[in-house]
Amino acid sequence: xxxxxxxxxxDPASGADSVNxxxxxxxxxxxxxxxxxxxxxxxARANDAEIFDATNLIVAPGFIDLHCHLREPGGxxxxxxxxxxxxxxxxxxxxxxxxxxTRPVNDNASVTRSILERAAAVSPxxxxxxxxxxxxxxxxxLSEIAAMKQAGIVAVSDDGRPIATAKLLRQVxxxxxxxxxxxxxxxxxxxxxxxxxxxxxxxxxxxxLRGMPAATESxxxxxxxxxxELTNCRLHIAHLSARGSxxxxxxxxxxxxxxxxxxxxxxxxxxxxxxxYDTRYxxxxxxxxxxxxxxxxxxxxxxxxxxxxxxHAPHEPALKDVEFDRAPFGVTGFETALGLALELVHAGxxxxxxxxxxxxxxxxxxxxxxxxxxxxxPGDLTIFSTEHKWTFRAEESASKSRNSPFDGRSxxxxxxxxxVAGRIVFRR
Length: 428
Ligand SMILES: [Zn+2]
Ligand SMILES: [Zn+2]
What we know:
By secondary structure, the protein is α/β, with parallel strands linked by helices. The chain is 31% helix and 21% strand. The protein has helices at 81-90, 109-122, 145-151, 166-179, 190-193, 202-207, 215-231, 243-254, 265-269, 290-302, 317-320, 337-346, 352-359, 361-367; strands spanning 2-9, 24-29, 32-38, 50-53, 58-61, 63-68, 93-98, 126-127, 130-131, 155-156, 183-185, 198-199, 211-212, 235-237, 259-263, 307-308, 381-391, 410-420, 423-427.
């Protein structure tokens, strides 16, 4: 038994906000929420419980990260399921969705099962794998989507690359609609991408680096929305980075299509002006222009965007310590996501409740599940401070990799405890 005592609840799904802001106690019994009451009103029921004092802290439903790379199997020198999920717990995440671009690719049920078995043995948080859309994510033959669904995947994607052709995407979507799985696409028109290492613009010219235009992404989003309409399958746009893409999602939603999208903390925080020859600023999609970044923040505020997702993409130092042109794409993200999102809250750009939605009920909706603080719901909670001051040091990260552009950044606000299935798995 665990008693979360005297916390301020912020739960967009239950509508708990400042309207009735009296602190609450939450009693967790086994792996579930057993009772919620005004502070001090649970009485004898909580007598034997371990107590977590949440005074002056926010208690939110457990955060879900729809998009990460745990690198196991095959990339264990950069990350393992154990190290990656420990970093996720430190970031306040109670569930993470690893992309299938491991070695081997998660394109069949035996790989899915082995990931889930490993996670059950070592992960402090829930691991909900995403299966590949095509065999080897090569964009040719369909993967074993139905068998992977039975094994436990929650979505389908060829992330790392786009689903190669409109024809394949249509087939994938027809299957996924029948199986009630969302298709998540890394949107990129590869013919415009070739050889590019950052966003095309003034800064790419200044640095003499090959750039890709924003249309690289938005062209693919337009294709996906139309195939989505053709098949009526749920479509989720991964790591959306361009204003043109956001406008397409906004229009699709206005037309009633089941289209959702996510934005990463690095895309709503940084711009292409931050890119020098430092490979910690190299990711795909690349950092966008200031106008695009401001449009993304507007989309977070107005509800067009459904989720904040990290795209945590660890690479061991040996891979990233090379010239900008040769380095792999990707940055780590679990431990800095909440701090960066709170920067938007402190700046008055989004409300605290909206931020919580982007980490909880928003991503849950993308997966077709619910996430809220209520009796009998799973005992997954993220407890955080909006004020705690700290500095992120990549060398102290639980991740095996150090490739963060936010190394040394100071934050106001941090995860204070991560609770999964009624147990504290991280506490600051
Ligand atoms: Zn991607
Ligand atoms: Zn990714």
